[in-house]
Specification:
CATH superfamily of the largest domain: Adenosylhomocysteinase-like
Family: Belongs to the adenosylhomocysteinase family.
Oligomer: single chain
Shape: globular
Bound molecules: adenine
Helix content: 40-55%
Number of helices: 17
Strand order of the largest sheet: 9-8-7-10-11-14-13-12
Number of domains: 2
Largest sheet: 8 strands, mixed
Keywords: Cytoplasm, Hydrolase, NAD, One-carbon metabolism
Strand content: 15-25%
CATH topology of the largest domain: Rossmann fold
Structural class: alpha/beta
Radius of gyration: 22 Å
Catalytic activity: S-adenosyl-L-homocysteine + H2O = L-homocysteine + adenosine
GO molecular function: adenosylhomocysteinase activity
GO cellular component, one term: cytosol
Length: 416
C-alpha cells in the first residue's frame, strides 16, 4: 500500500490550501530552496506522524525537495485535511496514510504503514511513532538516525522513556526550542483556540469569565488573547512559579473547584489528565462551555460526565454536545479533543513557519550527526537562523554587537 487517503479528486482544493499557507511560510521557503541546492536528506527515509494540514504539507514538500523519501500519517484521527492529503499524493508524489475521522484500527494501520517504509528518521507530534517503533518494531531502532518531536505532550513521553532507560534512539525536542514554543505554543494556540471556540459556538467573549487551566506557553497565549477579547480570565495551575507568574500578569489564580462555580467558558491546556472532572462539572453554572486545547483528549473527563448526566444531546451545533447534569446544561466542544484543530484550522501558517523550519533543520542535524539515544535540544545556531530569517521576512533589522560590546560581555574583570 503506497497511500490511503479519502479521495484523490480533492487534490485541486488541497493544492490551493497548500499554496495559501505557503505564502505565509517564508522561512520554510528559504529552507526548501537551500535543501534543493544541498540535498541534505538524500538517501534518507523519513516517516512523519503529524497533523495533516496545509502547513504540514509545506514541510513534507521541503523535506522531499531536500532528497528525503517521505511517508506521512496523521497524529490524530480527527484533524486530517483530506484535500491536502490528496494534493500531497497527486501533485507531490508523497505517500500519505490519513483519512479524517478514521477509526482507531485504521489510525494504527496507517501508523504501521509509515513504519513499514523502514525509516531512518522520524518526525512525531505526540510520540506515537517513536513509542510504537519501540514497542512493536525494535528491530528498526538500530537503523534509526533519530527523530524529532513537535509537541509538549510528546516531549514529556520521550523524557519519561529516557528516564526509564527505555529510549533507544536520539530525539530532538523541537517543542522546547524558543523558535517553537514562544510563538507556536503561545500565539498559535492562543489565537487558534479562541478561533475554534468561537467558530463552534459563536460566543461573545467580552464580559465572560474564561477559565484557562494550565499556564505553560499555550495557557499564557490563551489567557492573553482571551483577555484581549474582553473576557475576565481566571488561571488554574499546579506549578507554584507559573501560578505566581499568572497572578503577576494580572490574572485571578485559584483552584479549579473554585473556578468551576464562576466560569462561563473553560479551556484546558495542561498536557495532563483529569483536569476537569465530574466534581467540577457539578459546580458549573447552567450553560457553561468546556473545551480542551491540550494534545490528548484526556484533560476533560467526558466519560464521567456522560455517565453522570441525565441526558445527552449530541451535535446541538457542529462540534457542540449538550450534557444535562443536575438540571444544568453543560456544552462540551469537539468531544474534548483539540478544539483549535477540530473546529478551526489549527495554528496559522505564520507560526507553523518557524516550528516547521526548526523541524526541517533539526531533522538534517539528526541525519548528519551520530548521536547517542537521548532527548536533545535544538542546536542554538538553528534557532538563530530561524529567528533571523523570520525577522528578515518581516523587514526587521536588528543591531549587532560592536567589538567593544562583545569584549565587555565576555570579560569578568570589569565591574563596579
Ligand atoms: N498543530 C497545531 N496547528 C497545526 C497546523 N496548522 N499544522 C500542523 N500541526 C499543527
Amino acid at each position: 500500500m503506497k497511500n490511503d487517503i479519502k479521495d484523490i479528486s480533492l487534490a485541486e482544493t488541497g493544492a490551493q490550501r497548500i499554496a495559501w499557507a505557503a505564502q505565509d511560510m517564508p522561512v520554510l521557503r528559504t529552507v526548501r530552496e537551500q535543501f534543493i541546492k544541498d540535498q541534505p536528506l538524500k538517501g534518507h527515509r523519513l516517516a512523519a506522524c503529524l497533523h495533516v494540514t496545509a502547513e504540514t504539507a509545506n514541510l513534507m514538500i521541503a523535506l522531499k525537495a531536500g532528497g528525503a523519501e517521505v511517508a506521512l500519517c496523521a497524529s490524530n484521527p480527527l484533524y486530517t485535511q483530506d484535500d491536502v492529503a490528496a494534493s500531497l499524493v497527486k501533485d507531490h508524489g508523497i505517500s500519505v496514510f490519513a483519512i479524517k475521522g478514521e477509526d482507531h484500527d485504521t489510525f494504527f494501520k496507517h501508523l504501521e504503514a509509515v513504519i513499514a517504509t523502514k525509516p531512518d528518521l522520524t518526525m512525531d507530534d505526540g510520540a506515537d511513532l517513536v513509542s510504537t517503533i519501540h514497542a512493536k518494531h525494535p528491530d528498526l531502532l538500530a537503523n534509526l538516525n533519530g527523530g524529532t518531536e513537535e509537541t509538549t505532550t510528546g516531549v514529556i513521553r520521550l523524557r519519561a522513556m529516557a528516564k526509564d532507560g527505555a529510549l533507544k534512539m536520539p530525539v530532538v525536542a523541537v517543542n522546547d526550542a524558543k523558535t517553537k514554543n514562544m510563538f507556536d505554543n503561545r500565539y498559535g494556540t492562543g489565537q487558534s483556540t479562541l478561533d475554534g471556540i468561537i467558530r463552534a459556538t459563536d460566543v461573545l467573549l467580552a464580559g465572560k469569565t474564561f477559565v484557562v487551566a494550565g499556564y505553560g506557553w499555550c495557557g499564557k497565549g490563551l489567557a492573553m488573547r482571551a483577555r484581549g477579547m474582553g473576557a475576565n480570565v481566571i488561571v488554574t495551575e499546579i506549578d507554584a512559579v507559573k501560578a505566581l507568574e499568572a497572578a503577576m500578569d494580572g490574572f485571578r489564580v485559584m483552584q479549579m473547584t473554585d473556578a468551576a462555580a464562576i466560569g462561563d467558558i473553560f479551556c484546558t491546556v495542561t498536557g495532563d489528565t483529569n483536569v476537569i472532572t465530574v466534581e467540577h462539572f457539578k459546580k458549573m453554572r447552567d450553560g457553561a462551555m468546556v473545551a480542551n486545547s491540550g494534545h490528548f483528549d484526556v484533560e476533560v473527563d467526558i466519560k464521567g460526565l456522560a455517565s453522570s448526566a441525565s441526558s445527552v444531546r449530541k451535535g446541538v451545533r457542529n462540534f457542540v454536545d449538550e450534557y444535562t447534569l443536575d438540571g444544568k446544561r453543560i456544552y462540551v466542544l469537539a468531544e474534548g479533543r483539540l478544539v483549535n484543530l477540530a473546529a478551526a484550522d489549527g495554528h496559522p501558517a505564520s507560526v507553523m513557519d518557524m516550528s516547521f523550519s526548526t523541524q526541517g533543520l533539526a531533522c538534517v542535524w539528526m541525519a548528519q550527526n551520530d548521536l547517542a539515544p537521548e532527548v536533545y535540544d535544538v542546536p542554538g545556531e538553528t534557532e538563530d537562523t530561524v529567528a533571523m530569517l523570520k525577522l528578515a521576512s518581516m523587514n526587521i533589522t536588528i543591531d549587532t554587537l560592536t567589538p567593544a560590546q562583545q569584549k565587555y560581555l565576555s570579560s569578568w574583570q570589569e565591574g563596579t
